[in-house]
Every structure is written in structure tokens, then in C-alpha cells.
Amino acid sequence: MPHMPDMSPNAVRVAHSTHDDPEMAVRDVMSAMDLPDLAGVILFCSARYPTDALGQALSRRADGHVVIGCTSSGELTPAGMAEGSLTAIGFPTADFQLDALCLDGITGINSAQVHNQVRRMTADAEARARQRWGVGHHAGIFLIDGLSAQEELLTLTIQNALGAVPLVGGSSGDDMDFRETSVFHQSHFRADAAVVALLSSRRPLHVFRAQHFLPGPARMVITRADPANRIVHEINAEPAAAEYARLIGARAADLTPALFASHPPVVKIGGEHYARSIRSANPDGSLTFYGAIDEGVVLTLGETGDIVANLESLFDELELKVGQIDRVLGFDCVLNSLEIRQRQIADRVSRLYAARGVVGFNTYGEQLRTLHMNQTFSGLAIGCA
Q1: DSSP assignments along 164-233, one per residue
Q2: How far apart are CA 55 and CA 293, in angstroms?
Q3: Are 286 and 255 in contact (CB under 8 A)?
Q4: Distance in angstroms (rounded) separating the CA atoms of residues 321 and 324
Q5: What is the full per-residue pLDDT of the chain (385 aa) written as tens digits?
Q6: Is 77 helix (H, G, I), strand (E, B) or coil?
Q7: pTM of the model
């Protein structure tokens, strides 16, 4: 069913700009947001924008309001899938609260301190929501430097601190360059950092995860790895890149992100299957992964299904859970975007996202509750008032 935008004054606001100049792009987006009427804004920006100039422009416009965001590897805009844009979603004060906490220096951060900070923020937000609406719905939103390799630790820590409040989020990207990814909080973009936000509302909120692959028969055992750097040196006691290439019917020299997207290694956790996606093949014959990997882990090669049909089913299920949906805050893996383009279905998926009210970005990884994942479309469905 097509998304029917909520035209009420309390509708979730969305805006995007394709202007190349960061000052002009910020002006376009923030003018459409009407910031003084909002509890806060989450934005996603192409890595093509210079973050210093973009951050300065955002800081001038934020004027003390809650504004958070991150760099992306593609944006999910009100018009569908895009690249090279600035995209934002804003939450009207009448129906929402948005609290945000910035975590700097996450490679050496104190987990206990993070846990306590998130617990305090959550308790305060829940108390204010009860005072305002009698009862409130809550969701944690997590944005993290996509090159920090700290997703597993912080996702688990933050979800434990949130308690019954579910966490969902994404790892910032930089158009597959793997050089500089960052998050934004209030005044400037920060590397080696993360932002934890708590969205509270009197409206229904529902977090979700969807994926279009299933485990196949080919079996892979990680026999030599460097877990700290997410590097696998051997699979099935053979050089990793060569063995992976053999299993998918390719040559190691021909491995590309598009092939990694079409043939994801899959691990079974708690009865469910999750991708352990490959980021790159290295000159020494090893493979670098997007997420945690270790010796002894048993993987199978995933087989992809019908992307469009799976997405249509997902949106139908979300409407059954939430009722009429105002917007969907989406975190879509960059490898999904690559596969969608490789299959030449980008126009269909883009139209579907626009029709279903999706706004978000293409990530270097997705977080849901305690898990850091890849090759999922995860997010938050926001009901209408």
C-alpha cells in the first residue's frame, strides 16, 4: 500500500537537498525542517561534502536544538535512493522527545561509564514521557563511526543499559572509500565517536530487521584470523581470498564488493542467520570483514532471494504491527545497495522506499538490540498520531 504522508502539523518532517555547496544544502534542509517546532533532527550526509564546512553550517543553524547525524554511503530520501545529498528527518515536539548523548574516543572508552550515562538518559526520558503522555513508547537510535570497529562492544553495552527499550542504528560510511567516517552531534563531525539517542513518543514505535538471503550448502570454517582487525587469513586451512573465490566460482584476482554482496558468508546465532560480510580482499590473500570474526567460526555461503518481494512483505508486516505508518527510519547496508544496482532493480527499490516513507542511509553495518550485523535493512517504523 502506498505511503500516505501525514499532513497534520504534527507530522514527522523530512527534507533533502542535492545542492553541492554545504551551506546551501543546510539552508535548504533546515528551512524545510522548521527547527524551533521540533524535538530534534537526525540527518545523513554524503561523504562528498567537506565535513568541516558542513559542520559549521549545521552548527550555525542548530542554535542549541538537538541535531545529530552521520556520514553515509548513500542516502534514503523522501524521493527514494540517492547519492551526494543531505537528508534529514525531524520530530515535532507535540508528539516526540529526542535526547542525545555523544561518546568521544570510543576505541578506549569505559564501558561501565557508557552504561551509566545511557541509563541516566533513559530514566530521565521515560519519566518526562510519563509526565507528558501518561505512557510513552521509546526506541534507542545508535550512530557510530563505521571505521572504529567498536560496534559489537558498544551495541551490547548500550542495549544492556537501555533495558526493555530496543536499540537500532547504523555505522557511518564514506562511499566505499574506507578513509574517513564520522558522526555529528550539535556542533561538529567527530571520528572515533558515536551518538546514542533516545526517541520517545506517544505514537507507536517498532524496530525491525529484514534480509533477503538464506544459508546455502557451501561450508566455510575460519582457521586463521586476526579478530582485533577483523581480518581472516585462512578459510578451510587455505588462503582466505582464494578459498572464498573457489567456493563462489570466481578467481581471487576478480573479487569485488559486488561479488561480496551477492555471496555473503552467513553465521547462525541463536537459531537465526546473520551475514558476516566481507569488506575487501587484501594483497596478502586475506579478507577484511565488516564485523567481528574469529577462528573456529563456521560459516555458510548465503544465497540471495527476491529483494523487492521481501521488502514489500516487510512493509505490509510493519503496518500490521504499527497501524498507519508516518515514516520509516531506515538503515540499509551499502552491500544491499550494491546488489540492488547490480541486479538492475534500483529504480523499483527506490520507488518502493519513497512510496513507503523510508528516510535514512546506506551503512557500513546495522545494529539491532545487542547485535551488529551486515546486509540487513533495519530500522524504526513510526506510527501516525
Answers
A1: TS-EEEEE---TT--S---EEETTEEESSEEEEEEEEESS-EEEEEE--EEEEEEEEEEEEEEGGGTEEE
A2: 34
A3: no
A4: 9
A5: 555 555 567 899 999 999 999 999 999 999 999 889 999 999 999 999 999 999 999 999 988 899 999 999 999 999 999 999 999 999 999 999 999 999 999 999 999 999 999 999 999 999 999 999 998 899 999 999 999 999 999 999 999 999 999 999 999 999 999 999 999 998 899 999 999 999 999 999 999 999 988 888 899 999 999 999 999 999 999 999 999 999 999 999 999 999 999 999 999 988 889 999 999 999 999 999 999 999 999 999 998 889 999 999 999 999 999 999 999 999 999 999 999 999 999 999 999 999 999 999 999 999 999 999 999 999 999 999 7
A6: strand
A7: 0.94
Radius of gyration over alpha carbons of the chain, in Å? 20
The C-alpha angle 56, 57, 61, rounded to 5 degrees, equals 115
| Cell digits of residue 308 | 523487492
329, containing H or E segment: strand 325-333
The three cell numbers locating residue 55: 559542520
What is the torsion angle, in degrees rounded to the nearest 10, for the CA atoms of residue 155, residue 159, residue 165 and residue 169? 0
